[in-house]
Amino acid sequence: MAYKNSxxxxxxxxxxxxxxxxxxxIRLPALLAFAFIITACGFQLRGSxxxxxxxxxxxxxxxxxxxAFDQALNSALRRAGIxxxxxxxxxxxxxxxxxxxxxxxxxxxxxxxxxNDVLQLERQLLTNYFIRQADGKSIYGPRRISTSKLFTExxxxxxxxxxxxxxxxxxxxxxxxxxxxxxxxxxxL
Length: 189
Prior knowledge:
- It is a single chain.
- The protein is α/β, with parallel strands linked by helices.
- 39% of the residues lie in helices and 28% in strands.
- It has 4 helices and 6 strands.
- Strands 1, 2, 3, 4, 5 and 6 form a 6-stranded mixed beta sheet that branches.
- The longest helix has 29 residues, at 12-40.
């Protein structure tokens, strides 16, 4: 028994304090290094760039051919705080025109089965747009924006496939409108 009382035990709290302090001193520099690397490559959170004050009043002249895109673009611009004027409103000194060219779709077959049925397909939706002044002179653009989606073959009826393709096209049109808004936030106006 004499030996048991003579052994000096280190309290667990002291050991834990040193271990925790050591881990904190390693984590903080690692976190800072990670943050510097991410910002150095140009990473930014979406929506972090405000739209230029010069673009606060816009008339949309869309020749996209997709109602879903036009509606999504209109609502995205309004959510961003941009005043979307009527189509009949002429572009003046403080009202600019957002001209959207027709949307085009491209499909790339990525994989086929042994009987030449398409197993994977990439569909790309793209357009060009620009910002014009009242005199018709382009002050930003033409700019090209695009989005793509990967489709895989499903065992479904033809009607279900057509409906899902239409839904996917509407989703792509909405995503393209959001990309246009994001691209506008970089306009040097």
